[in-house]
Amino acid sequence: MTNTPNQPSRLELIEAILVRVATQQEINTTAIAGLTAKQEVNTTAISELTTKLDNLSDNIAELTSNVNTVLARSGVLDDVLLELRDSHEQHEQSYERHQQNFLEHQRTSNAALQSLEAILLQLLRIFPQQ
């Protein structure tokens, strides 16, 4: 195979290809190094996010527990409040009955006193004081 002055030799072609392959390999090595660094950063970020997610899960579990406790206490307090309302209504009704009974007793006592006063006046007329 003879070389023409304008054509590179086969060895020159192979050398050029090897130079391009070496250049591309350097580019690829640099890119892989960059990707490896990014992967390490991402791995660290994922680890931090996993820790934060675990903390968040713990916080949610604690919050859920607190909410359940509050709701249970609220249920108890609602029951107590209903009992207090019922008791208050019963006391109000009892007070009203006692008030009515008192007024009735007062009325009958006043009527009895008036009757006794009338009897006393009649006795004083019948038996004047000497």
Notable traits:
about 130 residues; mainly alpha
Model description:
The structure is a single chain. Helices cover 90% and strands 0% of the residues. The longest helix has 117 residues. It is built from one helix and no strands. The model has no long low-confidence stretch (mean pLDDT 94). With 130 residues, the protein is mostly helical.
C-alpha Rg (nearest Å): 54 Å
The total count of strands amounts to: 0
Mean pLDDT: 94
Class based on secondary structure composition and strand pairing: mainly alpha
Q: How far apart, in Å, are the first and last alpha carbons? A: 178 Å
Q: What form results from the Cα inertia axes?
A: rod-shaped
Low-pLDDT residue spans = none
| Largest sheet composition | none
Give the proportion of residues in helices. Answer: over 70%
Number of helices: 1
**H/E element order:** H
Question: Which band does the percent of strand residues land in?
Answer: under 5%
In short:
This protein has 130 residues and is mostly helical. The protein has one helix at 10-126.
Q: Secondary-structure map with pairings?
A:
Elements: H1 10-126
